[in-house]
């Protein structure tokens, strides 16, 4: 029987260091690709980058915001109305058009707030385990982390590594 052990003798401190190193690698790759410094990225942008969402570079976002503001200046329409008391009121569409991100990560984050409760309801059906298959043992802390960072639309993946013991080879 093949037995693949995932992180057999790693401490929590080592796992945190690996996670931080992977985050830094992903962010530096993104920053190099779009030619921006990682220190100017907002936490929402960092989350979208790590989860693999397609986001536009900050320069393109600024350009879209500028175009929206320019359109508002060109097409500015003011409306003057008078109520029954003779009071004049003037309305304009100033700041009624808002720039919106194409990714709806806030909605997905709110809908995924109860995913951590699913960790307590995970079980392994012994009928599904076969001796001819390779068995993966994943610690609950890693499984919990995957579930907590997931949401209902984004697929989360990870890299498994380990050893196959020679005496377990069929």
UniProtKB/TrEMBL annotation:
It comes from the Eukaryota. Signal peptide: none annotated. GO terms for cellular component: catalytic step 2 spliceosome; U5 snRNP. GO terms for biological process: spliceosomal tri-snRNP complex assembly. One of its GO terms (molecular function) is U5 snRNA binding. InterPro entries: PRP8, Prp8_domainIV_fingers, RNaseH-like_sf. This is Pre-mRNA-processing-splicing factor 8. It comes from Artemisia annua (Sweet wormwood).
């Amino acid at each position: 029987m093949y037995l693949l052990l995932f992180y057999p003798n790693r401490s929590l401190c080592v796992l945190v260091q690996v996670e931080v190193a992977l985050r830094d690698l992903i962010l530096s790759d993104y920053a190099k690709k779009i030619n921006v410094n990682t220190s100017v990225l907002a936490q929402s942008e960092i989350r979208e980058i790590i989860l693999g969402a397609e986001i536009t570079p900050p320069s393109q976002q600024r350009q879209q915001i500028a175009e929206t503001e320019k359109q508002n200046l060109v097409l500015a329409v003011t409306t003057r109305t008078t109520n029954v008391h003779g009071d004049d009121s003037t309305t304009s569409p100033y700041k009624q058009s808002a720039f919106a991100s194409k990714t709806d990560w806030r909605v997905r984050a709110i809908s995924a707030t109860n995913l951590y409760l699913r960790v307590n309801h995970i079980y392994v059906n012994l009928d599904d385990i076969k001796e001819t298959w390779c068995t993966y043992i994943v610690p609950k802390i890693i499984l919990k982390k995957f579930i907590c960072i997931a949401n209902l639309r984004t697929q989360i993946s990870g890299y498994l590594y380990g050893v196959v013991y020679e005496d377990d080879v069929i």
